[in-house]
User: Fold this.
Amino acid sequence: MASPALHARGPRKPTRYFGVLPRSPAFWFLIPAIAALAIIGIYPLLLALYNSFHQYKLADLGSGTPFIGLDNYIATLTDPTFWEALGRTALFLCLTLPIEVALGLFAALLLHRMELPWLRAAARVSLVIPMATTYAVVGLIGRLIFNRQFGVANYLTGLIGIPPQDWLANPTLAFVSVMIMDVWQWTPFCALILLAGLSMVPKEAEEAARLETPKWSMILWHLQRPYLLPGLTAILILRSADMLKMFDAVFTMTRGGPGAATEFISVYIQRVGFRLFDQGMASAQAIILLILTIVLSRLYIRFVYREAA
Assistant:
């Protein structure tokens, strides 16, 4: 049994090396994660912020990288092509995200009311498959599906009498094709998040609500909605951030074409940085995109998550 003198000394403080670093094993296990975060996340962000205030052209490194202040930001904000790419990205987000949330909610409600446990488990596993597919592979699958000569899309539309379409050569159809592939890949993510929210609803309250009213819409709005809002906030934040920086799937599927029909903001930033070789301008555009993402996330938290709280 510990002596009273030991209790009087209070909790034992971790031993420190050289008076600075703690000797606790937990601290040393955190060092690899901290180092990876600093190398992969913090350093590139600081480098992009530094480059955004300098003239940094890869094709003219001999002239150096002089400090030019806010010139890159001013040039970006007055660039009509930048705003057109941002507008296409915003349109893609406003059209695709509601579809993913609606289909995900429909799938979550079906799985929530599914009686057979083994069937529910099999459905959950199948939902993970599209999410586990990398963006580049999704783009390649899209190129095969919407190929004019042997694509599945023209075969299915031909069953209802629609003639073959050149999906990836038509600006509107190419935009729709990218939407379809994104909905296929990320609707399961929305379904699983919303299903987790539905599983938090007390079963007794849900059974009592079904006895009171047979309308599922009233049960969803008055009982299940508060449990869905935190997950919905996470979906809005994560999917909006993903769509704003969406590159791999679009680039492998359409390369931003035809013309500029699917040149979203991330594809445009890549073109400025690695085809026009203007790293300073591309860094400024990336910082502006980061600021827009943070502002959008704060709006979601303010208006959606606060209602849940």
In short: The mean pLDDT is 88. The first helix runs from residue 4 to 8. Strands lie at 16-17, 21-22.
